[in-house]
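Anyone have tokens for Glucose-6-phosphate 1-epimerase? Sequence:
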Amino acid sequence: MTYRFEFRLRVALGPKGDLFLTSRIRNTNTDGKPFSFTFAYHTYFSVSDISEVRIEGLETMDYFDNLKGKERFTEQGDALVFESEIDKVYLDTPPKIAIIDHEKKRTFVLRKDGLPDAVVWNPWERRSKTILDFGDEEYKHMLCVEPAAVEKPITLKPGEEWKGRLELSAVPSSYYSGQLDPDKVLHG
Ligand SMILES: O=P(O)(O)OC[C@H]1O[C@@H](O)[C@H](O)[C@@H](O)[C@@H]1O
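Reply: yep, here.
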């Protein structure tokens, strides 16, 4: 089935280097029909060493595990850490998520709106080798955290518009330096 829609992406850089991405999708069907879609910003973050980074903001969240037949689980531990392939869709996530890179003394802060879910993906060693445009060792230095609307597709009637906003900031500090209170990052 084909649909007419308009997609607008606004990319803006703030004075401190913050990146603002605003997507707008409008149903421009002339036949009166609604349409549904899912959406994700496939944002790849550069990290020092995947085994040393952690994500705060997703602990205790429910997720679908794409590596286990999309079964639903609940995250138990503290911050998320990584030691093998991951492809999970976290559901109803908070508006702020932090990727803490202790070695680089840098934290990425994601602020999102209109994007309830968050995909977390790293192909790790074995799968990396099957991805043509992905170097065999690159998985060590990247992490995808993708603000998304995937669990519940968005449905737009003709004329209706959806907006999904993402703000990315890199904070030149670390959790341990004391300059960055994780609680303030996530809830401030
Ligand atoms: O290569 P892309 O489009 O950035 O996608 C990478 C990954 O993105 C994730 O959203 C998917 O859950 C993975 O299965 C996928 O492989």
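The first helix runs from residue 124 to 128.
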